[in-house]
Amino acid sequence: MRREGLGGGLSIETRIAVLEERVAGINARHDTQAMELARRLDELNHAHQQARDRDVLYLPREVHEQFAKELREKMEFIAAALSEAKGVATATARTYAIGAAITAAVGSYVVQHWLAR
Fold it and tell me: How far is CA 89 from the centre of its chain?
């Protein structure tokens, strides 16, 4: 059994016109799809750049934990040294030691992580 796609009674010109309309419709849908895909890709690229810009403002947990560990070690070292040197004024010495340790740690952190970028 033979199947007629465009109708057996239509002239060749009519068949061509119908096929041209179908092709034009397919091309229009492809153009619309291509524009939509380009728009989505642009949005993804923009979102990716925004995420990268936002990530610059935050530290990974591992970096923070390492920094906190080093800071605690420096604070304890300075506090112990000052406490031994001052003898009686251990509370005051510890307070000054903590301030000095924070200043030293923050200064070294800035040099190592921010200026190296």
Answer: 49
Instruction: Fill in the DSSP letter of residue 5.
Output: S
Q: What is the identity of the amino acid at 87?
A: G
Q: How far apart are CA 82 and CA 86, in angstroms?
A: 6
* Side chain identity at residue 109, one-letter code: Y
With a CB cutoff of 8 Å and minimum separation 6, the contacts of 100 are: 78
pTM value is 0.39
Does 38 have pLDDT greater than 70?
yes
Tens digit of pLDDT for each residue in 91-105?
Answer: 666 677 777 777 776
Residue 31 has phi, psi (to 5 degrees) of -65, -40
Task: Return the closest-CA partner of residue 86 out of 73, 97, 100, 71.
Answer: 97
Looking at the chain, how many residues does it have? 117
3-state SS assignment for residue 16: helix
